[in-house]
Amino acid sequence: MKKSDIGLIGLAVMGENLVMNMESKGFAVSVFNRTPQKVTDFIGGRAKGRNIAGAYTLEELVSSLKSPRKIMLMIKAGSGVDEVIEKLIPLLDKGDIIIDGGNSHFDDTSRRAEYVESKGLLYVGVGVSGGEEGALNGPAMMPGGSKAAWAHVKPIFQAICAKVEGGYPCCDWIGDGGAGHFVKMVHNGIEYGDMQIICEAYDLMKNFLGLSYDEMQSAFGGWNGGELNSYLIEITRDILGFKDEDGQPLLEKILDSAGQKGTGKWASAVSLDEGVPLTLIAEAVFARYLSAMKTEREEASAVFGGAIKIKHSESEKRKFTENIRQALLASKIVSYAQGFSLMKQAAATHGWSLDYGRIALIWRGGCIIRSSFLDKIKAAYEKNPDLKNLILDDYFADKIKSLSGGFREVVSSAAKAGIPTPAFCSALSWFDGYRAEKSPANLLQAQRDYFGAHTYERLDSDRGVFFHTNWTGKGGDTSSTTYNA
């Protein structure tokens, strides 16, 4: 019996679509699912007549594969991944490869890679972005883990991933341990931010300007033809134009309470550990939490009222719609600047050698945040691989300067009208904080020293030399241990 090139465990929609994608690129695939009927249904349905074999035990799956065996897990992140790994290890030989294609936490991937390698096997944690459509037609893929595995999985991954101009594959080796899943986590955090700022733009257009759905669709369509060209802007245009069976906008009938799967929360939590202000993405996560408080929001609205209604002339609407575009683009720049700063700091912490220009190119196609904007990021890091922050690149510095007027007008007008724009506000506050030569943190340090003797540094002394003042005359001269939280 001819053996398969790769095996896949987990026949939910992402798993099925990846299998169909692999087979369409000329690879023979064996599949397994813990529910046998799913294997039977898949082999007799979508996979019928294709070079896809069903396996009903892990032993059968392993024995059906070419050496070194490559087995990809497309199952829910968490303890289930560890359970499957434990079941596979006794069945595999030295040099065989276990691949986790789910949304696992990068720390789990680092731990699993070390453990699997200790058993003489290889481990790959690969972030897969693009949803169901991407899995079937070409996702963006971010693999990391055991570098020795890359030569074996590269032909498959780069065959099935999305391609951009020049046929460049949206998949390349990211780094050791959990690097691949870390970069995917940051991708998802940026996705949270992009979605939130688009939602805030929609809210302002609808409830501040009073635009119709046709007018909003037209605006997003125009933006998609310019600097904001992206998958998320494109689908927002389509959503705004979609009518329900009664001819009314379907969006008006969808409950305003959003869920999440955790990757945005992970990115926000890691940013606190790394000391990186990921403010826009964190606000996007909090906005989802607040949206889920639907009943409380309705009660609060009855007590405090809603947004202030303001009538605008047609010329005012056109001008402010342009301001919203500027706020969207400026906030997008800030979101990516924060995300790449987080990757830069994490790379130093974990000893990864990340290629930020290559990461931008991987995200250029197949994934949810794909946009033409990423070409500019790629160019920025190619010009200066040691760029401290994205907004310090000449292109982005000039761009954000040109956008600041409309950006500030949107944030101030929204605040006056009582329309929440947490991501826009946090983006502008981060920008103003980042460009502030002096911050009020001198007072903060004095306060800490006053109540806790935590010490402070002085402008007229070298950095790293700490002082303590007896502010009340009663505290004495003993200081606390110096530390940074």
Describe the structure.
The protein is α/β, with parallel strands linked by helices and 485 residues long. The chain is 53% helix and 8% strand. The longest helix is centred in the C-terminal third of the chain and has 37 residues. It is globular.
Counted beta strands: 10
Helix fraction bin: 40-55%
Largest sheet: 8 strands, mixed
Distance between the termini: 60 Å
Q: How do the strands of the widest beta sheet line up side by side?
A: 3-2-1-4-5-6-7-10
**How would you describe the shape?**
globular
SSE pattern: EHEHEHEHEHEHEHEEEHHHHHHHHHHHH
Number of helices: 19
Q: What Rg do the Cα atoms give?
A: 26 Å
**Averaging pLDDT over every residue, what do you get?**
95
What is the structural class?
alpha/beta
The poorly predicted ranges are: none
How much β-strand is present in the residues? 5-15%
Layout of strands and helices, then pairs:
Blueprint lengths: L5 E4 L3 H12 L4 E4 L3 H9 L7 E3 L3 H6 L6 E4 L5 H10 L8 E4 L5 H13 L3 E8 L1 H7 L2 E6 L4 H11 L2 E2 L3 E2 L5 E2 L2 H29 L5 H11 L7 H10 L22 H12 L4 H14 L1 H11 L9 H37 L5 H7 L10 H11 L10 H24 L4 H13 L6 H12 L33
Helix pairs in contact: 1-6, 5-8, 8-11, 8-12, 8-14, 9-10, 11-12, 12-18, 14-17, 14-18, 15-16
Brief synopsis:
By secondary structure, this protein is of the alpha/beta class. The protein is built from 19 helices and ten strands.
Give the tags.
485 residues; alpha/beta; eight-stranded mixed β-sheet; two-stranded antiparallel ribbon; 10 strands
